[in-house]
Amino acid sequence: MTQHNILVVEDETSIASFVAAYLKNAGYTVRTAATSQTALTQVATEMPALIVLDLNLPDGDGVELCRRIRKSSDVPMLMLTARDEDVDKIIGLEVGADDYMTKPFNPRELVARVKSVLRRAAPDRRRSETAELSHGDLVINAGKREVYVGDEEIRLAPKEFELLWELLDHRGIVLTRDQLLERVWGYTFAGDTRTVDVHVRQIRRKLGDASPIVTVWGVGYKVASERTPTAAG
Ligand code: CA
Question: Which of 105, 183, 196, 207 is found 20 to 30 A from 111 (Cα to Cα)?
Answer without folding.
Answer: 196
